[in-house]
Amino acid sequence: MSKALVTFFSAEGTTEKVAKRIAEKAEADIFEIKPEMPYSKADINWKNPLSRCNREKIGRKDVPISEKIENFGEYDVVFIGFPIWYYGAPNIINTFIKEYDWSGKKIALFATSGGSGMGKTAEKVKPLFEGKGEIIAAELFNGAISDDEIKKWVDEAMTN
Ligand SMILES: Cc1cc2nc3c(=O)[nH]c(=O)nc-3n(C[C@H](O)[C@H](O)[C@H](O)COP(=O)(O)O)c2cc1C
């Protein structure tokens, strides 16, 4: 039986809800990817060109994370969840991926968005795993998703 970990970043709570449902179905541990400096409402106002999220995006900045997963080596499958920001994964996800050794891991990406699809999100983060680990799934969970749909996706990811 694979041991699974659900990790997620959520600025406004939507992805967090999905992450908790996935963790329940996967009987997985859960880890919230939290920035050292929490995002305020003003920080994530993408309509303001000078807001933190825009500066991070344009500057391709890393976003320091407040805690580290000490027992990362124990997990076979790692889910990574995030909101779609600017048609892809937020910078903090890039930082998160770069902090760990993904050798032998199966990786399942999931996201929520305001309407955009996953687009090239998986292809864009792939190089950050440095050829270690394998992305086995990438799915958008918007709107009313049933427990059965989540269970089906989780089961597929866990047995892939
Ligand atoms: C900085 C920023 C950029 C965003 N960019 C997009 C985007 O490119 N496409 C989209 O559909 N939604 C975009 N959104 C909306 C979020 O993806 C959506 O509201 C998501 O469900 C929020 O998840 P959360 O509550 O877990 O943070 C953006 C939101 C923010 C704050």
Computed Rg: 15 Å
Q: What fraction of residues sit in β-strands?
A: 15-25%
Fourth-tier CATH superfamily name: Flavodoxin domain
Ligand list: flavin mononucleotide
Count of helix runs? 5
- What is the domain total for the residues? 1
Order of helices and strands: EHEHEHEHEH
Given helix and strand content, the structural type is: alpha/beta
Strand order of the largest sheet: 2-1-3-4-5
Mean pLDDT: 96
The largest sheet, given as strand count, sense and whether it forms a barrel, is: 5 strands, parallel
Q: Could you provide a short overview of the structure?
A:
Helix content is 29%, strand content 19%.
Give the topology.
Layout: E1 4-8, H1 14-26, E2 29-32, H2 52-58, E3 77-83, H3 91-98, E4 106-112, H4 121-125, E5 134-140, H5 147-159
Parallel strand pairs: 1-2, 1-3, 3-4, 4-5
Task: Provide a descriptive summary of the structure in words.
With 160 residues, this protein is an alpha/beta fold. It has one domain (4-33, 69-159): Flavodoxin domain (Rossmann fold). It has 5 helices and 5 strands; from the N terminus they run βαβαβαβαβα. The protein has helices at residues 14-26, 52-58, 91-98, 121-125, 147-159, and strands at residues 4-8, 29-32, 77-83, 106-112, 134-140. A 5-stranded parallel sheet has the order 2-1-3-4-5, with helices on one face. Strand 3 (77-83), helix 3 (91-98) and strand 4 (106-112) form a beta-alpha-beta unit. The model has no long low-confidence stretch (mean pLDDT 96). It binds flavin mononucleotide. Flavin mononucleotide (FMN) is lined by residues 10-16, 44, 46, 53, 83-87, 112-116.
